Amino acid sequence: MAAITKEAGPASSTTQNKRERKQKIKLTLRAYLWLSPLLLCLSVIVIYPLINGLILSFTNAAQNNIAEQIGAMSYPATYKFVGLQNYVSILRGWFTPGSDDSHVLIQTIIWVIVNAIFHFLIGLGLALILNRKMRFRAVYRTLLMVPWAMPQFVAAFAWRFLYNQQGGYIDAMLQAIHLPVIDWGSDPTWALIAVIIVNIWLGIPFMTVTLLGGLQSIPAELYEAASMDGASRWQRFRSITLPMLRPIAFLVTLLDVIWTFNTFVVIFLLTGGGPFHRSDTLVSYAWEQAFQVPQRYGLGGAYGIIILLILLVFTLFYSRMLRANETVY
Amino acid sequence: MAQKVTSAHPLSGKQQRVSTRPATQKKRGALAVFGSLSAHMVMIITVVICLFPLVVVISTSFKLPNDVFDLKIIPSHPTLSNYQYVLSGDFLTWLGNSLKIGLMTTVVGLAFAAPAAYAMSRWQFIGKRGLLLLFLVTQMFPAMLLIVPLYILFAQLNLLDNIFGLVIAYATTAVPFSVWMLKNFFDTVPKELDEAARVDGLGPFQTFWRVVLPLTIPGVAVVGFFNFMTAWNEFMLAYTFLQSDSKLTLAVGIQRYVHDFGADWHYLTAAAVLVTIPVLIVFIWAQRYLVTGLTGGSVKG
Hints:
The complex is a heterodimer. Chain A is mainly α. Chain A folds into 2 domains: about 1-55; about 95-290, MetI-like fold, CATH 1.10.3720. Helix content of chain A is about 75%, strand content about 0%. Chain B has 2 domains: about 1-60, no CATH class; about 80-295, MetI-like fold, CATH 1.10.3720.10. A two-stranded antiparallel ribbon of chain B has the order 1-2. Chain B starts with a helix and ends in a 6-residue tail after the last helix. The relative contact order of chain B is 0.11. The chains are: A mainly alpha, B mainly alpha. Chains A and B meet through helix 2, helix 4, helix 5, helix 6 and helix 7 of A and helix 3, helix 5, helix 6, helix 7 and helix 8 of B.
């Protein structure tokens, strides 16, 4: 076959094209065969619930009306379609000042922005320090990983112990420097600050390690050339480090915002969202609506869809911004 | 170490001291010492803050109940009784459940991810870019969106309070990340090896199984470990789905030491130490490969 094609002269290019296309189709079929277990699994556990979640969000499904299998008895579902009622009630809540929903929305925005800013600044600062040659660098870098390596539910309990009101460590430290003891549990502002502090602590290792990786991938020749041209340390930072770090910084900030937004464990185990939902974010509040009495699954489904939409819109907007920025430089 | 560093950098330290500008050099030397001192200060403070909660947990786990709030890092009456209590209770059941779920998640996750990652790494096929994008989107899928429909589905199928439901959920959440990492590890194996294997008469699966996979065992181990961590650390789904005491994972079970009127901190911290230390050690080993795997070797760990 190959010999014939070679001798065919002018016709060879089209035959080759055909062969390439055949090869590509063969490879595509093979690739999808290899991918099939994964795709099957993804469709069962992601696409099916996504569609079902969407349907549920238009119903009044709750604890007492879903289909259930209890022992040998099976109960059929008796919930009804209620149209956009769940979405309307969420949106109305957001625009009613003083309601739980409006507080939760503001708290979510504060939560994401404060966490992202502190994560980035602390992570960048530590990465810049660790990027220089220094003694014990590997030791510092390893010990810095501990907040990431600890299971989050353990970290949440550890901090709850530190914040403990009957003689916890943090209160003792405040007293030692003659500051008033803080009512972490029942003061709404301090409760929110407490969960934010813990989440900042949790996020430091990821930011430091990834930004350090980004810094180390900047070619040393750039800095050498700049120093020869007489650039000061600040000038080198502004015109080499920052622009070279931009792509990885954008990516890790995106991931950080998504993870922070989706955080549940820290809030749930530390304050339970309390007092009066004043340390809840959208995700923890949505979980409480869906799984605490009265379990309103329909409303929970609507929150789920809204949360997905927020994430999608944010990601799209963010990557647009990234692309727009790239053309400027 | 410091010696090596100064000689490696033509612009710093020793070599400049013999330059023609001794005065500025002296000033810069003092500045450098100050800079390095403050760098060490910042790092030490950061490390103390990072370690403090863990140190307190470890210290409290060796304390008697009356000493829990004495705020001493070294226990005044060190005891192992908390560990004895914890290890004779439900803890072992939860540990067994967590191990079972973790190992199953690892195996199922790798079985789904490895062939997919190999296909992604080796073949140009139609729809590849779209699939990579799909994996990225599933990565940011909020658990909150899945948890309600899954709860209702599992209630119908009688899979609530069942560890298999959790294994499938965990394996799926871990898979997109695993495919991404494994693809980067497979990419490091030269394609010429596949070619050689093909010439020797091995089929695609044999090539993958006998040639490429054995060469990337460390990478596969790291990905497997992160799958295990996903299951070991997960709280939200386990807390929502599991009900009976005998089915709980550690993440949920450990809450049993907390009551409405307070917590048995001495027991809770002992359990926390047992849960944390093994994964902490493996994590610190594995995280070096994590950065490499995430960035496809373009970044040095």
